[in-house]
Design a protein that fits this description.
Blueprint: H1 6-23, E1 28-38, E2 44-54, E3 60-68, H2 69-72, E4 75-82, E5 88-97, E6 102-113, E7 118-127, E8 131-133, E9 137-138, E10 145-151, E11 160-168, E12 171-175, E13 182-185, E14 188-197, E15 204-210, E16 216-228, E17 233-244, E18 248-249, H3 255-260, E19 274-278, E20 283-289, E21 297-301, E22 306-310, E23 321-331, E24 336-338, E25 344-349, E26 358-367, E27 373-378, E28 385-391, E29 400-410, E30 417-423, H4 426-429, H5 431-451, H6 459-468
Parallel strand pairs: 1-11, 9-18, 16-26
Antiparallel strand pairs: 1-2, 2-7, 3-6, 4-5, 4-7, 5-6, 8-10, 10-15, 11-14, 12-15, 13-14, 16-17, 17-23, 19-22, 20-23, 21-22, 24-25, 25-30, 26-29, 27-30, 28-29
Length: 469
């Protein structure tokens, strides 16, 4: 969806502002707002510093963030913190006001702000699929340029006395902020300062800049995590489907030209290899695609992490796709510990090695050993879907518990550990070898019985005929 669709939202604001104010208290006035936009790859990161003053006659414990629907669909993460102490603040998504097409977030302040006092807040937002290649197609050897459209102002339900927006990038052309201050300085664009900005102010701005990075989109990711107490390992397997969302080729791919121009590929949007950070205890790594095992990979262990470097079977230009899966085993002790109450607590990242990628959809499946029970899941962010099902594999008798978590639109900020508690006893640890032993005993017993039985047809009649002869 084009970012220019934000304009339709702006025209409706004038008649909907009073509606939004009626639902939530307006206790603050933004004294100063400094907004910085980072567009170094396909993901937009917005870091906003706010000095807000309590203009109400009551202590304030909440600061509200309003997000229009056309921006909300691209919003992957919103977080808040205290600027001075860097203390993280809880951000709660409240509701969607359909009449105003607004999504409401509440920042819970760590202590009340008294009337007349100031507070220094930081708000970080991450957006995906808002930067588009322009032009949409390029020659095989060409620099990619992209267009980013955004609001010149910090979108807020509060009156803002002064604000400024800075975008760091080698900008070729920019527009917006009509009849207002905007300056280009050393490869960055500064919008503002703007004085006395009204609540919900909007003015569309664009920046056209060089961005010769592949736009890596993980269209789907399935991450299988299997816990083994018997083997003391954590087995991880990840199934990837990726797409380069950068500018496509304007003609057929030329293999000869590609081989001769390797020295300038870094200045184009072609994707030639991928790198994944694995735990330092990772071992027994493998990498396979639909054809089979891929040997163009390199695995090395450093002091604090292991690194898996993968090369797809072919380079990925704009619009090209690739699917594969890789896996590894890691020491279980790095992820699992036992609490004083006797419960096991598993801490494992929801996703890993996201870096400059965006993930459209991720499914994380955590498979526990047979006999685990009373499973409880805690996540550091909201999950779109959660289910606890049964899973069976070799030598299972009663089946295992499997936790299935799904979430859409993920970025690096979602590389956070999920925590899963469960009960598991020593008797359960012996369940599988006991079942396996019983299985082998029954198998051998059946084999002995079958060996003692005769399956020759008409054997007695044949023996009588032989005697007569």
């Amino acid at each position: 969806m084009s970012v220019r669709s934000l304009l339709s939202f702006a025209f409706a604001l004038s008649c909907l502002v009073s509606f939004a104010f009626a639902n939530y208290p307006v206790q603050f006035e933004n004294s100063k707002v400094i907004r910085v936009l980072d567009v170094n790859n396909a993901i937009v990161r917005e870091d906003t510093g706010i000095r807000a003053k309590n203009i109400d006659d009551k202590p304030a414990t909440e600061y509200y963030i309003y997000n229009p629907t056309n921006v909300e669909t691209h919003t992957a993460s919103i977080s808040a913190y205290m600027k001075k102490t860097k203390t993280e603040l809880e951000v709660i998504k409240l509701e969607y006001i359909r009449e105003a097409e607004l999504h409401i977030y509440k920042v819970v302040l760590n202590e009340p702000v008294q009337p007349g006092d100031d507070i220094l807040l930081g708000i970080k937002s991450v957006y995906t699929h808002l930067i588009n290649p322009v032009p949409a197609t390029l020659p095989q050897i060409a620099r990619q340029h992209t267009l980013y459209g955004f609001n010149s102002y910090f979108f807020s339900p509060y009156h803002t006395k002064e604000q400024k927006t800075t975008l760091y990038k080698n900008v070729i052309h920019h527009s917006g902020a009509q009849d207002k201050t905007s300056a280009k300085d050393n490869g960055k664009i500064v919008y503002g300062p703007y004085i006395d900005t009204q609540p919900f102010s909007f003015e569309y701005a664009t920046c056209h800049f060089e961005n010769s990075h592949p736009f890596i989109t993980v269209t789907s990711l399935r991450r299988d995590i299997e816990v083994s107490h018997w083997g003391n390992i954590l087995a991880v397997e990840e199934h990837y489907a990726i797409r380069n969302d950068g500018a496509g080729l304007d003609s057929n791919f030329n293999r000869g030209q590609y081989m001769l121009t390797g020295h300038i590929h870094e200045h184009t949007n072609v994707l030639k290899e991928l790198e994944f950070d694995l735990p330092v205890s990772a071992h027994d790594t493998y990498y396979r695609d639909e054809v089979g095992n891929v040997s163009t990979s390199h695995f090395r262990v450093e002091k604090k992490k292991a690194i898996l470097e993968l090369k797809p079977r072919y380079p990925l230009f704009g619009g090209w796709n690739y699917t594969w899966h890789h896996g590894y085993n890691a020491a279980l002790g790095s992820y699992l510990h036992k609490s004083d109450s006797g419960k096991y607590i598993l801490n494992v990242d929801f996703v890993e090695s996201v870096k400059d990628k965006s993930i459209d959809k991720a499914i994380v499946r955590v498979i526990f050993p047979e006999g685990a029970k009373n499973v409880k899941v805690n996540t550091p962010f909201d999950i779109d879907s959660q289910a606890i099902t049964s899973y069976s594999t070799y030598f299972d008798s009663t089946g295992r518990i499997m936790v299935v978590l799904e979430k859409n639109n993920l970025v690096k900020e979602h590389e956070l550990p999920i925590q899963i508690e469960y009960d598991y006893s020593v008797v359960n640890l012996l369940q599988k070898p006991f079942v396996a032993s019983i299985g082998f005993f029954v198998l051998f017993s059946i084999s002995i019985v079958l060996n003692r039985m005769s399956f020759v047809i008409n054997s007695q009649k044949e023996k009588a005929n032989l005697k007569k002869e």
